[in-house]
Amino acid sequence: MRLLKVSSLTFREFFEPDVPKYAILSHTWEKEEVLFEDIHLKEQARSKIGYKKVVKACNLARSQGYKYIWIDTCCIDKSSSAELTEAINSMYRWYKESDVCYAFLSDVSGRDFEISAPDELRESRWFTRGWTLQELIAPDNVEFYGSDWQSIGNKKNDTLCSIIADITKIDEGVLRGKDIFDISIARRMYWASGRETTRIEDLAYSLLGIFDINMPLIYGEGHKAFRRLQEEILKTTDDQSIFAWYNYTLDGSPVDILAQSPSDFSESGRISPYTPFRVNRKATAITNQGIAVELPILSLPSPLHTEHSPFEEIEAILDCQLGSTPGTFPTIRLRSVERGGNRIQRHYYRIMGETTSVKENIDLDLLTKDVVGFDPTQLDQDLYKDARENLVWNCKIETIIITRRTPKPNQVDTAHIPWSLSLLASEYPPDDTPFWLALFCPSTLTVDIADIYPKQRWDKSLRQMRVSSIPQIQYGLGQVRRIEGAINLNVRFESSASSFAERITLILGRKSFDRRDSYLKPWCRIYKPQMDAAQIPDYVQNYNSLDRAVTQIFPSGELPESTPESTSIRISEIDPQVLLNVKVRIMEVSGRFYYIVNVVYSWDEDYYYGGMRLLE
Known about the structure:
The protein is built from 15 helices and 27 strands. The protein has a 7-stranded mixed sheet. Strands 17, 19, 20, 24, 25, 26 and 27 form a 7-stranded mixed sheet that branches. Strands 11-12-14-15-16 form a 5-stranded mixed barrel.
């Protein structure tokens, strides 16, 4: 440990256990701070604005009988990455082992400060910086000084302690020396949620001591530093409150189970550890598939799910306390990656939603036999068996894997199912999947494109129709139906027995089948006679605006909602044995999904494909 000698402003290094008593300075960095290399060049140091602060701190330490002081600006050689890593990993301990810590508030006047009117203190920049959090908590003896180095008071003074606790939201007991590790992970993160650092990575590095973590520093990794910190925390604690965070800007979106920054814990101040931890609970593990964790889960009964909404959503109960009411547990919302329960461990990803309590969700309040609230760790007790029979939720304890991979949000729906991870990828393609009209016809059937609507979404060279963007507000409102385009086709059939020609219209669209299904499936229809090209835009607009008048164009008794994935018509009255069939299906070609439109004709009960036969 490198200390600054207060009498000569020179360095001296010490190794444990031979480190003498020392004072330590806590402050916010200003312009022209005195750095490590400046101490060896006194004239250069004196020319800097920060030199006065160093001298004042040394003078104060010497007046209190200390020979040495540690100041972060000049006692660390930041040109050495190894020394910087060692210093940051040791900093909490250095502050904790100091004899006194001087908290210098450069924007507060100590001479004019009145503890009865602490508004100036509340607005001090010192309380907003990330590094000063550990500098306030770690030392047992913290003395506050104003810009003129006049004393403001000690953090343990009753009145000042209450003011600081109100400003920082840190428990007064912690400020007075209570063991910080009795506080939940979430609440400690909450203390840091409103603080800032110059470097993004320092949001994590400044918290190493708060969570008793040592890890290498990688400047340039950005928010990954905070993810690494949480992973290291999970290796050392069983406190599930690390998952109890909420970011309202991501509400309804798929998110990583781990937070991106301390600010995500800004609503987690009411989270405390749940004292009677289950000793038989399986350990949380970080795997290459995600985080494996054992949780009590609440799930809706299966009858509420349909074949079109197969991805089960659950509320996972975290083993920590929400608020002051015993037996009230926070929950997080998870959605399964795959359908069915065949796997030993189900895979889920998190859907951002405001942290709620179990009691609010299931309306269960037990006040008998000295039990208050709902305890998911005691589900086998008779007391709970009777209560569970009245629940609309299924409840069980299960080990699940919460994947770190989440679906990528797009412009249409930021909360849709991750099709790239799903076993139903072939059934639920991404929302920008195009229609591909395949017209590789046999010699007896010729199909020519006469007209396309809309032309701006038609790629002539690829014979593909790009789909339109569905407003996100339409999702979750029930059935969604949409015409994506119309194609006028001229069909000619020639054989040794007969020949004839017809003009038909092929309409392509997408629809959803259920209120809980945010995916759209393709459909198609063919009409005869061919629709007038000038009428098609109005027809499409009326259909997409839910105008029921468009049902008149459908065969008698049919509604647009009954539109199928395949359709057929008789090509000619001359030869009733010839039928033209069009079918749309979802297929993956070279890693991309398409709505393949197959043209099929049947003659004398034999089928001949005019579409992508090779893809089948």
